[in-house]
Predict the structure.
Amino acid sequence: MIGTANQVGWAEQIKTRVSAEFDRVARVLASVAARQTEEDRMDTLAVIAILENKRAEVMANDEAGYFIHDWQELRDQVRQMIAQDRQYKRIKINKELARRISQINPNWRLKSMMKIRPLSDRIVVKRIEEQEATIKGIIIPDSAKEKPQEAEVIAVGHGKRLENGELVPVDVKVGDHILFGKYSSSDIQVEGEEYLIMREDEILGVVEQEPKAAKQAG
């Protein structure tokens, strides 16, 4: 370890306490995981993996001053390191998406949701069954039915990263109804349910819901 003899001796003692703190947090997380459902347990195990990566980074530091200045007083440094991790933030976002989907559709199975995590500007949608009539009441014969198709947004990625490093968030949100072209998506199947994955720029438009007052006036 780099530093004076006194600094190194001091830092080694702090390093031992830091390692014990990581152990304590890992035990707490493992205890939580043991009581969780399978869906939530997978996320907690992912957080434990993040914790171990952070531990390896901290323990690999050979600067005595690092431990003396940053770890002398153990407060919530470990929790903060995890909370600031990009992978952990993505887990939190997916948790919030699952909560919102449950509010929109109480029958939605979270187990399926947690296995679909779109990246970048991709979105996951579920196709909406076609209806025989348009909103104006005109019947469309089967032979004349053309795409685009309609689908409900189930999950969205964090956005597209530009060349200058700027992150542009996805413009649609969970619960939106979108229109897309016939050949602009990839079909996937999760536990018997069919979904589609596409990029945001493959969306043709968002279906705006007509206000109730306008419907009653009509």
